[in-house]
Design brief:
Blueprint: H1 2-14, E1 20-22, H2 31-41, E2 44-46, H3 53-65, H4 72-79, H5 93-107
Parallel strand pairs: 1-2
Helix pairs in contact: 3-4
Amino acid sequence: FAVRGNCRQLEDISGKEIDQVTICGGWSASDFWSQMVADTLGVAVHRPEVSEASALGAGICAGVGAGEYSDMAQAVSKLVAMRSPLEPRPECRDAYDHAYERWATLSSMPMPR
């Protein structure tokens, strides 16, 4: 829900609607968690084949630095592969919307010291 809240803030600031997201790192390796993100946000979730983006990014930089690739764009096009996107499940929308509203209300309450 925090990711959904952050996305809503970005939409408010930019005036643009988020219609897809790309996630990486450990949670992107899990079909369960990635699907939950798609359902919670109500948008398609894209994930790279290699979930550990930091290690892959370091490898890309090393490849460019060693002259294996002419630039970052070429290295990315050769080394980054994406999995099939996960689409939000419409039958989950109402439940996640309701739970998000409850979370948003509770998370804005003052916390005791």
